[in-house]
Amino acid sequence: MEAEIPEKCAVFDIDNTIFDSRRRFHVAISQFNVSSPRELPLETRRMFWERFLDPQLFSLDVPISRTIEMMLAAKRRGLRLVLITGRYERLRRETELQLLQAGVPYDDLIMRPDGNFQKDAELKPSLLRSLDCEIVEYHDDDLDTLIEVRKISPKALLFLHRPDGSFEIIS
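^ thats the sequence. predicted structure below, dont judge the formating
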């Protein structure tokens, strides 16, 4: 019996990969009088993330056309498009609406479980392990996450994205 060849997929992060969320970040952080959430105590940091993930602020995000072009090209090559995000599952409806309004193509959307506070570099690889496809491309704006994804998908092309639409391939 022949072994089944797994479907190939390209995985894309959402914030600062598909959408430039710098304006949303600026609005969210401005009420805390710091430049980075890392400067905040843990409980206050969680308050920042709640503000950053307020769906009322999603309208501040700008689609990154270069990333969307990359997604369309991956789809034309027959890849399944999987989106993975640190946004909470409770934000699925608002996230799907934002993606639809921006014309973002995708086949699957994997979201952070509600109440989960893991760093993306820990969370995303653990969520990806249950994917039933071979990851051939992984796109994210966080280098630590890319390094961890490399451990579970050593053959994948890793793209480090910036919110201005530029990126580099990480080897």
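The helical segments are 22-30, 42-52, 65-76, 92-101, 120-128, 143-152.
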